[in-house]
Design a protein that fits this description.
By secondary structure, this protein is an alpha/beta fold. It has 8 helices and 10 strands. The strands form 2 sheets. The chain has a 6-stranded mixed β-sheet, with helices on both faces. A 4-stranded antiparallel β-sheet has the order 2-1-4-5, with helices on one face. Helix 2 (about 95-105) packs across helix 3 (about 110-120), helix 2 (about 95-105) runs parallel beside helix 4 and helix 4 (about 140-150) packs parallel to helix 5. The structure holds adenosine-5'-diphosphate.
């Protein structure tokens, strides 16, 4: 089966008047259809750089990035995003916010509108369709933002620290909620996060990066023996701590002096 996203031997350096900063070194990994992969790594190692390359905003110095077997630059519109801020516009109703992406990419058809209404209903936002974003909780806003993204039927979802603006309690429930919606939609997703618990609770595999220049230290497959495999259920499962500790150990391999923030 062709992977949805394939990164092969990616190198990237920044060039400034002060010299060269090598950010990524020989990064290779891939995502198969329907897979959820988290990327974690120390602060400043190159995670955002990696996302910019996948997004097509920058080109690698070496290596190839393929989406469905074709160079990424040719089809970066097949990528959907979920970011830290939901970027909903207060001057638009939730329904019209959800349609915004389709409107911008000239895909606003009666069928898109029908699907938007269907998704609002499916994800419990039907009664807020005419509300303004400020009338919704942080979690509901993130749902609306996700519906806006899913409506464009992206091949790949990029999630860049999507829950980090939320307080801890909200974060747990929203990541559970969003994680389950993504699973049900069958989308392939790549999450970049500094939150190791979040990475383990959501992913099928965790890509652990080294310090800058980032290379792949390890790819850890994650599986839980749960009847209902949800992010919240994972957090309470006995395997959770083991995975967390494995990743922590890997990130601090050359850091015997104690805990360090990962972003
Ligand atoms: P992370 O997202 O993991 O915190 P980044 O990808 O933002 O890391 O950055 C990786 C390294 O590249 C850092 O050392 C950072 O200082 C450097 N870097 C990032 N952006 C630029 C830039 N525009 N010019 C020069 N160096 C940069």
């Amino acid at each position: 089966m062709t992977p949805i996203l394939e990164l092969k031997h990616i190198d990237y350096s920044y060039h400034t008047p002060d010299g060269e900063t090598k950010a990524l070194s020989d990064i290779s990994f891939c995502l198969t259809k329907g897979e959820f992969v988290s990327v974690v790594g120390p602060s400043g190692c190159g995670k955002s750089t990696l996302l910019s390359l996948i997004d097509g905003l920058m080109k690698p110095d070496k290596g190839t990035l393929l989406l469905n077997g074709s160079p990424l630059t040719e089809n970066s519109d097949r990528i959907g995003y979920m970011l830290q801020h939901d970027h909903l516009f207060e001057w638009r109703s939730i329904y019209r916010n959800v349609l915004l992406g389709a409107e911008i990419s000239r895909k606003l058809t009666p069928e898109t509108k029908r699907r938007a209404k269907e998704m609002l209903e499916q994800y419990g936002l039907k009664q807020f369709a005419r509300s303004r974003p400020s009338e919704l909780s942080g979690g509901m806003r993130q749902r609306a933002a996700l519906i806006r993204t899913l409506l464009l039927e992206p091949e790949l979802l990029l999630l860049d620290e999507p829950f980090s603006a939320l307080d801890y309690q909200t974060r747990l429930t929203v990541s559970d909620d969003i994680g389950q919606i993504i699973r049900r939609s069958g989308k392939t997703a790549l999450l970049v996060t500094h939150d190791l618990s979040e990475a383990v609770s959501l992913a099928d595999r965790v890509v652990i990066l080294t310090r800058r220049p980032a290379s792949v230290a390890r790819i850890l497959p994650i599986s839980f023996d749960l009847e209902e495999d949800t992010p919240l259920a994972r957090r309470n499962a006995p395997e959770f701590k083991t995975y967390f500790n494995e990743i922590w150990k890997e990130l601090n391999r050359d850091e015997p002096t104690g805990p360090e923030r990962t972003k």
